[in-house]
Design goal:
Elements lengths: L8 H9 L5 H19 L2 E4 L15 E5 L26 H8 L3 E6 L27 H8 L5 E6 L5 H7 L2 E4 L19 E6 L2 H12 L14 E6 L8 H16 L3 E6 L2 H21 L1 H7 L5 H12 L2 H24 L2 E5 L19 H6 L3 E8 L5 E8 L4 H16 L1
Parallel strand pairs: 2-3, 2-4, 7-8, 7-9
Antiparallel strand pairs: 1-3, 4-6, 5-6, 5-10, 9-11, 10-11
Helix pairs in contact: 8-10, 8-11
Length: 417
């Protein structure tokens, strides 16, 4: 299957604004690409038959894939579960409605793992179909990586935006918690569930964020000498593949060559403790959020999901409150950490996409940042010996999304140079 030619959102928008491509033509490009490629990739759970194409709006002509965990009034919404086969919501999720108001065309619903948890779906990695695309935003990442669409929406509760972006060799952006609305999302763990975005490059994903939200997020020039970058030295690093460790140190060298102030920083103990608390916090909330599904549709749920919901329901409120306390301490430590550095460099995943579709990979490098609510971006550009993508994750202080995207774009340029 090899490297697929991806669609650049920036190039499409420039062509549209210059009068060289009208929205109908842009949407037809994606429709044709989906018709040609998706039988092999299996990125879409549903493709819109007659999608509405807006003539105006900042996202007019942009074919947007929406993870099938968000409600859409005009397309079935199955949440990756047989329990919701053919389910048709009455209204759009807030982010879907926002995208439509900005002129985007909801081209289809992208495949999600069951309830955006761990049970894998049928989507394959466009770089090598024998490997996972990652999860839970499997279809969103694979559809962009395969060049079917220029942009997609996903979610992250553990590592479900950053990891699939890394495995598929594209940019994934998990914004600061609540920067993007989550109303109309099938929640798993509401205090963690974060809406995120996918596009071919960091420049593209930053542009997407700006056009979607109306916030100033498009990658602006940055003075590297004024930005303190540090490799985040957490205990997890020892467990990363040699190829990943090498990519990370190469990334740090390239950042230094590009003029950034680069060093190392140790993981504060409170943040390590918060990472360890993520699972219990997530499961207790899933026990509540997905309890109704367990009560009504147990026979349609995977054993893996049933076990997680039951574990969550067995966690006492006092134990949950203790995890919340650890998370809060971690956030305080994170604020202190970002007093010393502006940007952290860390792996997006332990290595390249694992072989086989039985697992969507490991979120050990992502879940802390989801819990901290801090913005994170996967920067593509590195590969392992077999040609599979390796992702570098950059993280900034809560609310510093604009700086993060600007720095990530500058680093992406440096990695490609």
């Amino acid at each position: 299957m090899g490297h697929n030619r991806m669609m650049s959102l920036e190039a499409l928008i420039s062509a549209r604004d210059a009068g060289k491509a009208d929205p109908d033509v842009m949407i037809t490009l994606s429709r044709d690409a989906i018709a040609r490629k998706d039988a092999a990739i299996k990125a879409f759970a549903h493709v819109a038959e007659n999608p509405v194409v807006a003539a105006t709006g900042p996202l007019a002509g942009v074919a947007l894939g929406v993870k099938d965990i968000f409600d859409t009034f005009d397309q079935p919404t199955g949440y990756g579960s047989a329990a919701y086969d053919g389910h048709q919501p009455k209204v759009d999720a807030a982010i879907v409605d926002l995208a439509r108001r900005r002129g985007a065309t909801i081209i289809g619903k992208t495949v999600t793992t069951e309830f955006a948890y761990l049970h894998p779906a049928a989507t394959v990695n466009p770089h090598n179909p024998a490997h996972t695309p990652g999860g839970s935003s499997s279809g969103s990442a694979a559809a962009v990586a395969a060049g079917m669409i220029p942009a997609a929406i996903g979610t992250q509760t553990g590592g479900s935006v950053i990891r699939p972006a890394a495995f598929c060799g594209i940019a994934g952006y998990k914004p600061s918690y609540r920067l993007l609305p989550t109303g109309g999302l099938k929640h798993f763990a509401p205090s963690l569930d974060t809406a995120g975005l996918f596009a071919a490059s960091v420049v593209d994903v930053a542009l997407l964020a700006q056009l979607l939200t109306g916030r100033t997020l498009a990658a602006a020039p940055v003075d590297p000498a004024s930005i303190r970058v540090a490799v985040y030295r957490c205990a997890q690093l020892e467990g990363a593949d040699p190829a990943m460790q090498e990519a990370l140190s190469k990334a740090a060298d390239m950042a230094a060559d590009a003029g950034f102030d680069v060093g190392d920083i140790a993981e504060p103990e409170a943040m390590a403790a918060a990472r360890d608390a993520h699972a219990a916090l997530q499961e207790h909330e899933a026990g509540l959020a997905c309890g109704p599904d367990l009560a009504r549709h147990r026979e349609f749920l995977s054993q893996r999901l049933v076990d997680a919901i039951e574990r969550g329901q067995a966690i006492e409120p006092a134990a949950y409150d203790a995890t919340r306390k650890l998370a809060k301490r971690g956030r305080t430590a994170a604020r202190g950490l970002f007093g010393e550095v502006d940007i952290l460099l860390t792996p997006s995943a332990p290595g390249a996409a694992p072989e086989g579709l039985g697992s969507t990979g490991d979120a050990r490098f992502n879940k802390l940042w989801t819990l901290m609510g801090t913005p994170a971006v996967n920067i593509p550009g590195f590969f392992d010996a077999s040609g599979l993508p390796l992702g570098i994750q950059v993280v900034a202080r809560f609310g510093q999304d604009q700086v993060l995207l600007a720095v990530a774009a500058a680093l992406e340029r440096a990695f490609r140079a």
